[in-house]
Amino acid sequence: MSAVLLPIMPPLIAAMALLVLRRGSTALVLGGATLSLGGSLWLLTRVAGGQAETLLLPGLPDMPLRMVAGPLEALLTVAVATVGTFVLIYAVGYMKRESGLCRFYAVMSLFLAAMQALVLSGDWVLLLAAWELIGLCSYLLIGFWFQRPEAADAAGRAFLYTRSADLGLYVAVFMLIGSAGTGEIAASLEAGGSASTAAGLLLLLAAMGKSAQVPLQDWLMRAMAGPTPVSALLHSATLVAAGAILLIRSAPLLTPEVLLVVGLVGGVTTVAAGVIALAERDLKRLLAASTASQYGLMLVAVGAGVPLAALMHLLAHAAIKSTLFLAAGDFQHARGGTGFDQLEGVGRDRPWTFAGFALAALALAGIPPLSGFFSKDAVIAAALSAQGAAWLGPLALAGTLLTGGYMARALCLLWRGSGETRPVAGSAWMTLGVWGLAVPATILGLAFGPIEAVLDLPAVTAGTLAVLLGLLAAACGLGLGWLVPAPRLLGPVYPWARRGLSVGGGLTVWVGRPAMAVARGCERLEGRLYEAVLSLGRAGLFLASAGERTERGLFKIVLCVGRVSLRVATYVRFGDERRIDGLIFALVAAVRALGARARNLQSGLIHHSLAISAVAIAVTLAVLLFASSTSF
Amino acid sequence: MLPLVSLTLFLPLVGAVLILCLPKPATRTVHVIAIITAALTLIGALSMWFQGASGAGFSQVEELQWIPAIGAAYRVGVDGISLPLVLLSAVLFLVAVIYASSLRERPRAYIALVLLLETASIGTFTALDGILFYVFFEVSLVSMYFMIAGWGHEDRQRAALMFFIYTLLGSLPLLLAILGLYLGSPEPTFDMRAWIENPPLEGAAAMWALIAMLITFAVKIPAVPLHTWLPAAHVQAPTVGSVILAGVMLKFGTYGLVRFALQMTPDAFREAGVVVLVLGVVSALYGAFAALAQSDLKRLVAYTSVNHMGYVIVGVAVAAITLDPSVRTVALDGAVLQMFSHGLVTGALFLLVGMIQDRAHTREMGELGGLLKTVPMLGWTFVLAAFASLGLPGLAHFPAEFQIFLATLSASPAAVVVILGIAIIAGTFLKALRETFLGEPRQRWQSMPDLSAREWLAVGPLLVLTVGTGVAPSWVLGIIHRTTSALAL
């Protein structure tokens, strides 16, 4: 087995085994994830030197499926597997009291496998396939509690939003394959050409859907209706990360115009989602909005032409955000919900979890020496040195400020006040999961140097100005968030932010309703068409009934003939009785029978008519054919 | 060597005759004979599959004198376009008779009709003679008419009338086109191979023949605006009728589009290609939107057929328009695979809708609800089939639609707007799943039984093939590709 398959196969096999055995086996799911982590690490050591591993699999004719593992891809598989493993360890505790574990573990494993396939895909078909499969897995996971209406709605919404945006990926892929003549990602990115601006914008659309960028951010908040481990996995290293990964990988293709758009979309999102997070009154929803905001920062870095900075923030964010979500899930079990009024002071009651949460929160805000400090610095430096620095710089700094604000708000809430804390089942598993990710969230900064050395990407130049501005923004944000209540901080924007900054009702109104209106229009047209054809049919039937009347006339004539023959019979009785009588009676009988047949003919049932006409056609055809065969 | 094609073709007819000849057979006997016949037919089709088709022209050709004076003969054979459809028919008819084995109402006539229909279907796909093709084409329509009228649901007379009108209007133009091709041939013959090798008609005559064929096939596919018979017929048809109608008979139209319109009047098709392309795009989008508006589950699935067959039209039209042989091959690969996939997936969906209707006696999504909890097996199989239908990778429709869209973008970029259909269909199925299967389980359906062994046997093979075709499409595409890449137009 090629080393490229090592990160993918264990969770895939685990998923299948779980489905076959129909038992939620902890050993299987954890085994799959751990082996995937081991495989990823091994893959990383093999390709760290720079030579990529490739594998060809049968796919479409002349378009084989291709898997490629260079240093970047291997690094991402390690990130995915690490988060996946610890989230699953955590889930063993978190899901202890749930039923349907077999389904949960199987889909989580499949999700992991699909994400690894996405990271390792070396051609567009495989990438597209994995891209859509993680959409399916998130649908199934967000809708895990499908009996709850809000979960069912959220699942459908998540899939529909991302699928609609995926049309961008489809068309971009077709354009790239069309212009490069190959499905290989690396080759088609180099080919570029006239289509690259359009293709770049379409890729951006797809990434916006998955990474929940404005205006497609709404589904992410609602997806909180799913189990918390799912949120942790979705937001850190899988579904949402896929959008940023796509842009990082396709960065060579993006033209300056596209880069500017990417940066602006990211900048606007980081601020808008940050404001939404600041106004949020539910911890999980706050974290969800924060995810959109942080991916906005990554897009800023890509837009600034420094995908390496985006990658670093992606890695740091993966560890940080999964820690935050896992801790939030622990608080959720302790207090029976994640609303702000439920969570007051829970941090004091769950100190170990709170310590992990606090470390991750400070890391996200960008406090040295935690991982987020380095990655955020890289992003800000990139934004300040970019062509559109006048736009991107302030937006990135505002995003940083807001990050400090909402994280301080969360910390403040968890620390102050008090409430009734319940004992949490499976607490050991959950703490292990939280700390397994809190450690990398803390120390990942150390690894950025070696990573930079291994990857073949343009390096980041972090000046003193960027560091100072970043620190200032983070500190101001933390201070303001801790001291000033959100409604006062946001002022008149607050009520709007509570509504998710939606413009005129959001996408449901702007896209959903017109689509339904068109659908209903089609349905009305259908009714009209149907009636039209039916009346055409009735006209045909009328003609047929006219024909039937003629036939009835004929029938009467036949009867008349019969009566006449009867008369004749009585007249000729005196003649040669035996012969003529016999003949006449035979005639009469024949006529009667004919009459009866004729009655059958006009039974009025269409299918009889149809059968007869079919037979008649066949007979006529046969006669014609044989006639012509003799005449030739 | 055994005449495999003819054996496979006439086996079901033999079964039907046997059932009709037995004096007062028990219901059980009828069903056993039906299943054995259909299984033997599938074995025949599989042997044909393993014999395979060489790239150029037709393989496994069997020929018998019929009416030598006018050049009509019994000629059958297959290539990479018809072989997957023959296999599809054999699979679908087998699962159909398995599903029908619970039928108690006049089973003898019903099963005989189904088997007759199987011969007609396989005959349509394997016929290599114009007259023979037309005969099989017509016989299938008549049998389907009786099935709807005799065993349909509440409003079957109206639906049957609709079907009847379209049947009458629809098939005559094809006869005219066939006669035109016959009269245009240098040596009078009904041999379709000759017509394909040297298209006999040129200029205006070819265009008229093409128009006539397009009318017939547009009714059959069905393409908007000649599709109104489809929802009516599907909703009223018995489940088996729907499965066969959507799974097999709709393919007569698209198969004819490739075999007749594309191969016998290629130049005219190239000229009129844009019109056909627009027809396909409109069909696909209109079908998708109409599906979105439905509240009846069976009608919804019927309209998604209009959408999916619209993609096939797009693929064939692109193949006709493009001058680049590699693009044409991709388009045709996609179009033929789409026919195969649609048969599997829509067949499964109609079976599942039939199972729901058998239990709940309603198809209204609003009245159902929460079924995933009540009948988990049925629910999850429906989820799988629904995601297959909305084109999820790893399931049968994805490779087909991917190739169609890829070729479309290369040949006529504007037509790629048709891709909107996959988002609308996704919305349609998500809405259907939400209303029918998700949410709180309802008290009313508490006692609903889950899938029985018979139902598993019917729907299971289709789902296995759906996944198999999605994960490793090369097992079908290999055979299709060999023919489409050798196609000279």
TrEMBL record, chain A:
<feature type="domain" description="NADH-Ubiquinone oxidoreductase (complex I) chain 5 N-terminal">
    <location>
        <begin position="71"/>
        <end position="105"/>
    </location>
</feature>
<dbReference type="GO" id="GO:0012505">
    <property type="term" value="C:endomembrane system"/>
</dbReference>
<dbReference type="Pfam" id="PF00361">
    <property type="entry name" value="Proton_antipo_M"/>
</dbReference>
<dbReference type="Pfam" id="PF00662">
    <property type="entry name" value="Proton_antipo_N"/>
</dbReference>
<feature type="transmembrane region" description="Helical">
    <location>
        <begin position="167"/>
        <end position="185"/>
    </location>
</feature>
<dbReference type="GO" id="GO:0016020">
    <property type="term" value="C:membrane"/>
</dbReference>
<feature type="transmembrane region" description="Helical">
    <location>
        <begin position="258"/>
        <end position="279"/>
    </location>
</feature>
<protein>
    <submittedName>
        <fullName>NADH-quinone oxidoreductase subunit L</fullName>
    </submittedName>
</protein>
<keyword id="KW-0812">Transmembrane</keyword>
<keyword id="KW-0472">Membrane</keyword>
<dbReference type="InterPro" id="IPR001516">
    <property type="entry name" value="Proton_antipo_N"/>
</dbReference>
<dbReference type="InterPro" id="IPR003945">
    <property type="entry name" value="NU5C-like"/>
</dbReference>
<dbReference type="GO" id="GO:0008137">
    <property type="term" value="F:NADH dehydrogenase (ubiquinone) activity"/>
</dbReference>
<feature type="transmembrane region" description="Helical">
    <location>
        <begin position="427"/>
        <end position="448"/>
    </location>
</feature>
<feature type="transmembrane region" description="Helical">
    <location>
        <begin position="391"/>
        <end position="415"/>
    </location>
</feature>
<dbReference type="InterPro" id="IPR001750">
    <property type="entry name" value="ND/Mrp_TM"/>
</dbReference>
<dbReference type="GO" id="GO:0003954">
    <property type="term" value="F:NADH dehydrogenase activity"/>
</dbReference>
<dbReference type="GO" id="GO:0015990">
    <property type="term" value="P:electron transport coupled proton transport"/>
</dbReference>
<feature type="transmembrane region" description="Helical">
    <location>
        <begin position="68"/>
        <end position="92"/>
    </location>
</feature>
<feature type="transmembrane region" description="Helical">
    <location>
        <begin position="352"/>
        <end position="371"/>
    </location>
</feature>
<feature type="transmembrane region" description="Helical">
    <location>
        <begin position="605"/>
        <end position="627"/>
    </location>
</feature>
<feature type="transmembrane region" description="Helical">
    <location>
        <begin position="460"/>
        <end position="484"/>
    </location>
</feature>
Automatic annotation (TrEMBL), chain B:
<feature type="domain" description="NADH:quinone oxidoreductase/Mrp antiporter transmembrane">
    <location>
        <begin position="129"/>
        <end position="421"/>
    </location>
</feature>
<feature type="transmembrane region" description="Helical">
    <location>
        <begin position="274"/>
        <end position="293"/>
    </location>
</feature>
<feature type="transmembrane region" description="Helical">
    <location>
        <begin position="131"/>
        <end position="151"/>
    </location>
</feature>
<dbReference type="InterPro" id="IPR010227">
    <property type="entry name" value="NADH_Q_OxRdtase_chainM/4"/>
</dbReference>
<keyword id="KW-0812">Transmembrane</keyword>
<feature type="transmembrane region" description="Helical">
    <location>
        <begin position="107"/>
        <end position="125"/>
    </location>
</feature>
<comment type="similarity">
    <text>Belongs to the complex I subunit 4 family.</text>
</comment>
<feature type="transmembrane region" description="Helical">
    <location>
        <begin position="30"/>
        <end position="50"/>
    </location>
</feature>
<feature type="transmembrane region" description="Helical">
    <location>
        <begin position="300"/>
        <end position="323"/>
    </location>
</feature>
<feature type="transmembrane region" description="Helical">
    <location>
        <begin position="242"/>
        <end position="262"/>
    </location>
</feature>
<protein>
    <recommendedName>
        <fullName>NADH-quinone oxidoreductase subunit M</fullName>
    </recommendedName>
</protein>
<dbReference type="InterPro" id="IPR001750">
    <property type="entry name" value="ND/Mrp_TM"/>
</dbReference>
<dbReference type="GO" id="GO:0003954">
    <property type="term" value="F:NADH dehydrogenase activity"/>
</dbReference>
<feature type="transmembrane region" description="Helical">
    <location>
        <begin position="377"/>
        <end position="398"/>
    </location>
</feature>
<dbReference type="GO" id="GO:0015990">
    <property type="term" value="P:electron transport coupled proton transport"/>
</dbReference>
<feature type="transmembrane region" description="Helical">
    <location>
        <begin position="163"/>
        <end position="185"/>
    </location>
</feature>
<dbReference type="InterPro" id="IPR003918">
    <property type="entry name" value="NADH_UbQ_OxRdtase"/>
</dbReference>
<dbReference type="GO" id="GO:0016020">
    <property type="term" value="C:membrane"/>
</dbReference>
<dbReference type="GO" id="GO:0048039">
    <property type="term" value="F:ubiquinone binding"/>
</dbReference>
<dbReference type="GO" id="GO:0042773">
    <property type="term" value="P:ATP synthesis coupled electron transport"/>
</dbReference>
<dbReference type="GO" id="GO:0008137">
    <property type="term" value="F:NADH dehydrogenase (ubiquinone) activity"/>
</dbReference>
<feature type="transmembrane region" description="Helical">
    <location>
        <begin position="205"/>
        <end position="230"/>
    </location>
</feature>
